[in-house]
Write a structure and sequence with these properties.
This protein has 187 residues and is an alpha+beta fold. Helix content is 20%, strand content 29%. The chain has helices spanning 67-85, 150-160, 177-183; strands at 21-24, 27-30, 44-46, 53-59, 63-66, 90-94, 100-104, 126-134, 139-145, 168-174. The strands form 3 sheets. The protein has a 5-stranded antiparallel β-sheet with strand order 3-6-9-4-10, covered by helices on one side. A hairpin with a 2-residue loop joins strand 1 and strand 2 (27-30). Helix 1 (67-85) runs antiparallel to helix 2.
Length: 187
Amino acid sequence: MPKRPWSSYHDVKGKPYVKRWKKTKKGRREYVHGVPEPKIRMFTMGTNKDYDYETILISDKQAQISHLALEAARIAANRHLRNEIGRADYFLRVLIYPHHVVREHRMMAFAGADRLQDGMRKAFGKVIGVAARVSPNQPLITIRTDRAYIQQAMRALKKAAPKMPTPCKINFDKIDPELKKKLGYGS
């Protein structure tokens, strides 16, 4: 049975379905069983030091972004930055985490399948992955660099944007020194 395309899942419908824990006499029990770990493992790359400019990838619409899309965008942006400016001159951070559990009601899609299935009986679906729910104008990825590397950072985010299922815009701004101290930017 083939997997459905992600376009079936990228619209936000209903409440988020997340892993929940409940404390019992036997310890912690998991309610949502069989949730796979997200493919994205690293959320920060580069060197975290005091940079002057920040480039941000911002979502335009509300959507669900799969963990696979996040990993693909991270790899595309990081590879471009690493090859163009080196590891010591940027700091990339993925700001969203995939919590929402995505389910699929598997159906056989070939000739004669109608005689083999129960159709929509007990159609809750099995877990196939996790996704991050984003709202409009929510930052997805930030890259902090010096003034000399703003163009490379914007180009890296342009390479990451097509991996997302929602239209994105790129914005850059000078980081305020007092805000840097307040947020603890740099080493």
